[in-house]
Structures are given as C-alpha cells and as structure tokens.
C-alpha cells in the first residue's frame, strides 16, 4: 500500500508541477472488497493531463537555477501555489510560457511527460505506464491489500490533487463507503486551476466501466440496475460516459 501511495503521489505531484487537471479517458477499472476487509483495485486505460502546455516548473528530478526549480518538493509546491495567485499570474505566464524560436515549450513538455511515465514505472503496482503523446498516458495498474485505513487513487496531500478517481473511506467499525468522483463529470469545476474549459474537455473524453465486486453486505448503492449475483458474491457495474453526472457510490458492511 505504501508503494502505491508513493506512486500515486509521484503522478499527482508531477502533474501539479504542470498545473494540469488529471482525469480518466478510456478505461476499465475494478474494485473487489471482501467481507474480511481484503481488497484489490485495478485501473487499465488512459489518464489525460489537460493544459500541460501552460505548465510550470521542470521535469521531475530536474533542478535548475530558478528558486522554484531548486527548492525541495514541498517548498516547490508552495512556491507554485503562490505563483498561481492572481497578482502574479501575468508574471508566471510571461516567465514560463513564452515560446522560443525552436519550439522549446513542446520539447520541455515532451520531456516532462516522459519523466512522469519513467517515474511511475519505478513503482510497484504499475505494470506499465507509457506516455502516448498529446498529454495522454496508457496505464496498467493493480494493487491489493487490507482496508485498515482509507484508500485513494491517485493521492498526494501536498500536491492537493484536483480530482481523486476513487475514494474508499472506513465508516465506524463495520462499514466502508466507496465513491468514484473521477468516474463522472459532476465534480466541482471551480476547483480546476486552469478554468472550466479543461474540465469540459476532460468530461467529453470519459469512456469506461467501473466494476465493484463484493461478498460484504451492500447497504446502499446508486446504480439503478442494482447488483447481480456472481460466483464471488454481488457485482455492480457502472458505465461511465460524458453524460455520467453522478459519481459511482456504494456503502458496504463487513461481517463481525
């Protein structure tokens, strides 16, 4: 689990340095929760990074002469958040966004995206992480563990990631609540640092399925077709499209 959180943190922190919105594209995702609290999660498909062309900072691991580039990761993120304040916005764009005569922005963008893919591949759980161009990653990820604490994908507290794809929270002693805000277009676009147009474009790219399988008791869920019986217990399948406005959600009760 620790390796997963570090890997997700690399993705979140790296993409924040690009001041971009991270969202799913075409994907298949599964979550299996057993009554004994064991679980497994998979994500296979696209992750899209919007507005990377207006990015800030350098590729992960590169330190330059600039105070932001040379800062520690935590201080770097604080500097970037300060840089995004309205009174400094013009200076940030002038400083980092001015294209050079040789297409330097495109080259830096490509290097940054490749560096993110390389960083992800170093982490356990990422069976593959490839940058496909046009701010699109192909991800094959799988993790298993026990629900002794909350689970988020992706996650990084310092980076203040805009949109978690999936969140699993423990509720009291015997319940767990799952919600997948990333698998819908109903998130709060006001939280998008690059404005609502990025969120609109991201919503149009949604195309996937999210499957929850469990042998725990299903207390509530919001898929209108309900759960179906499978050998592993009960299964709920959400089809995610640009018209999906309500995030998949369910509450389960563990056995005593």
Task: Tell me what the structure shows.
By secondary structure, this protein is α+β, with helices and mostly antiparallel strands. Helix content is 25%, strand content 34%. It has one domain. It has a seven-stranded mixed beta sheet with strand order 3-4-2-1-8-11-10. A five-stranded antiparallel beta sheet has the order 5-6-7-12-9, with no helix packed on it. The radius of gyration is 19 Å and the shape is globular. The model is unreliable at 12-19, 52-101, 156-161 and 188-196 (pLDDT under 50).
Radius of gyration, in Å, reads 19 Å
Structural class: alpha+beta
Chain oligomer state: single chain
Helix content: 25-40%
Instruction: Please indicate the count of domains.
Output: 1
Number of extended strands: 12
Total DSSP helices: 5
| Helix-strand string | HEEHHHEEEEEHEEEEE
User: How far from one another are the termini?
Assistant: 24 Å
Strand content bin: 25-35%
Query: What is the residue-mean pLDDT, rounded to a whole number?
Result: 73
Largest β-sheet summary: 7 strands, mixed
**In order across it, which strands form the biggest sheet?**
3-4-2-1-8-11-10
Inertia-based shape: globular
Low-confidence stretches: 12-19, 52-101, 156-161, 188-196
